[in-house]
Write a structure and sequence with these properties.
Layout lengths: L1 E14 L2 E6 L2 E7 L6 H13 L3 E2 L5 E3 L1 H4 L2 E6 L21 H19 L4 E2 L6 E16 L5
Parallel strand pairs: 3-6, 6-7
Antiparallel strand pairs: 1-2, 1-3, 1-8, 4-5
Helix pairs in contact: 1-3
Length: 150
């Protein structure tokens, strides 16, 4: 799994001119799922994201997590995070999981995040043409790949 995590003041996802999910202060998570992902990846990544200390404390130091600040989360599926650009100019998405694998993993990730945050997680719609708006706070953007747990 690959996640692009952005600390936001607000974010929303719109499908066919209807808002599907929106949050205030929190994290926008763009989530890419690949064929080789496992339940362990879901568990590790959801815990890592909920615990990332990337929100400012009273001294202005990034020392608080999403849980600490009571922030919200918006998760948007994005298979293009697994694009391979090694050959030619047209990206290959061969590593991206097919919907029959990716959808259950996406839903499990959202459920796990809801459990960790003790609140609803907002989402887009898997496979839909989505328009994502965000006000990146900082800006703070972090990329995590579960295949590279350094």
């Amino acid at each position: 799994m690959i996640a692009v995590i952005q600390r936001v003041s607000e974010a929303s996802v719109t499908i066919d001119q209807n808002v599907s999910g929106e949050i205030g202060q929190g994290l926008l998570v763009l989530l890419g799922i690949e064929e080789a992902d496992t339940d362990e990846d879901i568990d590790w990544l959801s815990r890592k994201i909920a615990s990332l200390r990337i929100f400012n404390d009273e001294k202005g130091v990034m020392n608080r997590s999403l849980v600490d600040v009571g922030g919200e989360m918006l998760v948007v599926s994005q298979f293009t995070l697994h694009a391979s650009t090694k050959k030619g100019n047209r990206p290959s998405y061969i590593k991206a999981a097919k919907p029959e694998i990716a959808i259950p993993f996406y839903e499990q990730f959202v459920q796990k995040a809801e459990t960790l945050l003790a609140k609803s997680v907002q989402t887009g719609e898997f496979g839909a043409d989505m328009k994502v708006r965000l006000l990146n706070d900082g800006p703070v953007t972090i990329i995590i790949d579960t295949k590279d747990k350094r």
